[in-house]
Amino acid sequence: MAGISWHYVLKFIITGDAAVGKSSLLIRLTDQRFLANPDPTLGVEFGSKLITIPEENKVVKLQLPERALMARDVRAHADPHLTCILVGNKVDLCADDGARRQVSTDEAEIWAREEGLLFVEASAKSGQNVDAAFEEACRDILEKIRRGVFDDDRSPGVKLSKPAGNGLTLDPPTHASSSCCGT
Ligand SMILES: Nc1nc2c(ncn2[C@@H]2O[C@H](COP(=O)(O)OP(=O)(O)O)[C@@H](O)[C@H]2O)c(=O)[nH]1
Ligand SMILES: [Mg+2]
């Protein structure tokens, strides 16, 4: 992969209710930090990060605008093959005191399966599973690309270059796919 900055740009939207930890997940992912008392009015506008998916031998650039969008609305308007991952954040609080858990892992897992979402419990505070959540979503997207699920003509969120021959041998930085990440 010498000389290649990234193979794909994947765009993620982080949605969820106020104070679930959207900004904190974004800061943890892109800046490896946790702010105990972030200013809720200070929007974290944008983040980006390069990650490697070794199984696919690909480097992906994640782009993450944080948007006050309802996950439901995103899914209604996006490509039907959109990859969504449900992130149960603040799992560190459950380790301190199990009684603080709001949703059981079983309940979340069942709901995610019914809705066709990937699922992970994470903590922006400890960093647990934050990178892993995005890596899992990226793996899912790359697998869909490899299987030809995204069609250049039909999928507005996917921009493939038109290289000679193999459509997956791509020159950066020309590609975009979409994802959303609900907390
Ligand atoms: N214990 C704990 N607190 C968190 C975690 N993520 C966010 N918070 C706190 O939850 C509050 C809301 O977080 P914020 O990122 O502003 O939520 P947003 O409104 O969804 O962007 C802040 O006080 C954060 O410090 C986490 O993983 N664990
Ligand atoms: Mg926020």
Automatic annotation (TrEMBL):
<protein>
    <submittedName>
        <fullName>Uncharacterized protein</fullName>
    </submittedName>
</protein>
<dbReference type="InterPro" id="IPR050209">
    <property type="entry name" value="Rab_GTPases_membrane_traffic"/>
</dbReference>
<dbReference type="GO" id="GO:0005525">
    <property type="term" value="F:GTP binding"/>
</dbReference>
<feature type="region of interest" description="Disordered">
    <location>
        <begin position="156"/>
        <end position="183"/>
    </location>
</feature>
<dbReference type="Pfam" id="PF00071">
    <property type="entry name" value="Ras"/>
</dbReference>
<dbReference type="InterPro" id="IPR001806">
    <property type="entry name" value="Small_GTPase"/>
</dbReference>
<dbReference type="GO" id="GO:0003924">
    <property type="term" value="F:GTPase activity"/>
</dbReference>
<dbReference type="InterPro" id="IPR027417">
    <property type="entry name" value="P-loop_NTPase"/>
</dbReference>
